[in-house]
Design brief:
The chain is mainly β. It has one domain: Sandwich (lipopolysaccharide transport protein A fold), CATH 2.60.450. It has helices spanning 2-20, 25-31; strands spanning 40-51, 54-67, 74-77, 81-86, 92-98, 100-104, 109-120, 125-134, 139-149, 153-163, 169-179.
């Protein structure tokens, strides 16, 4: 009787062990993933850059991720970014917002994607889906469709280049411009 109970208990335990073991490949891969976690991750991040105690830039983002172990390390802003540039008197001279961005510090380059909007001190507004900011050369550019909205005109085209504060710019392949009647009432 004791042998039968022991044998029965052994069979039950063996069955439980065999039934509870899983070898689902997707679950194994998540456990043994070779993906390196980000070096830095932050939410609600804000940074102010100054030069000689004068604020030059302000950066705000809902989420920041730093990927330092990549071939070309970069900061990622997966939920968007807003960057504002100031003059010495703290007047806004330009701003850029995007729903997604990356900053490659090794070559001083930003890439902004998805609903990119840049505004200069005159109120001229650039809209595009892709924009590169080369901070070393102090230029912004795009090879995609752009729309520039001024007070009385709208320009569209493919390709764009400007200085980094968006005060002097040109559209490479101008597709059209439209004059707008502005009533001062």
């Amino acid at each position: 009787m004791l042998r039968e109970k022991t044998f029965f208990l052994f069979i039950v335990l063996l069955t439980l062990i065999l039934v509870s073991c899983e070898n689902e490949i997707s679950k194994i891969k998540t456990v043994t993933s070779s993906e390196v976690p980000p070096a830095i991750a932050a939410e609600g991040f804000e940074m102010i850059a100054s030069d000689s105690s004068v604020i030059r830039f302000k950066l705000q983002t809902p989420e920041l991720i730093y990927h330092k172990d990549e071939k070309d390390p970069y900061y990622e802003f997966p939920k968007g970014v807003k960057i504002v540039k100031y003059d010495a008197a703290m007047n806004i001279i330009s701003s850029i917002t995007a729903q997604y961005a990356k900053n490659f510090s090794s070559d001083d380059r930003w890439e902004a994607k998805n609903n990119v909007i840049a505004v200069n001190f005159k109120g001229d507004t650039l809209k595009t889906e892709y924009l590169v900011w080369d901070t070393a050369k102090k230029k912004i550019y795009s090879d995609q469709f752009v729309k520039i909205i001024q007070k009385d005109q709208v320009y569209t085209g493919i390709g764009f280049e400007s200085n980094q504060d968006f005060s002097s710019y040109h559209i490479k392949n101008l597709k059209g411009n439209m004059y707008i009647n502005v009533d001062d009432k």
